[in-house]
Specification:
single chain, mainly beta, 5-stranded antiparallel beta sheet, 0% helix
Length: 93
């Protein structure tokens, strides 16, 4: 069990992370910003790689549920990643 001040890591499944061009409307949302560095289209799924402001890279999996998107997210675009608290797994080692 982690104590205040302990170093921990957070694991997130790529499909549990939301990607958007704007920050989430809720101030209590877990979120971070970065830039899209890669997009992989895999039929019914797109995988985005996002380099965060601290240099780390996160993957986001998004279902391709429609053919036409009003404003698709593109390479080199600045985006916000967010996730629900229950989606994160805290790792202590």
């Amino acid at each position: 069990m982690a104590k205040p001040g302990d170093a921990v890591w957070v694991a997130l499944r790529p499909e549990k992370v939301r990607i958007a061009p704007e920050p989430p409307p809720s101030q209590g949302e877990n979120c971070t910003a970065g830039q899209v560095t890669d997009i992989g289209y895999l039929g019914d799924l797109s995988i985005y790689k996002v380099r965060l402001d601290n240099g780390a890279v996160m993957k986001v999996a998004v279902a391709n549920v429609t053919r036409l998107v009003e404003r698709p997210i593109a390479w080199d675009e600045r985006v916000w990643l967010s996730w629900a608290a229950e989606a994160a797994m805290v790792l202590t080692r």
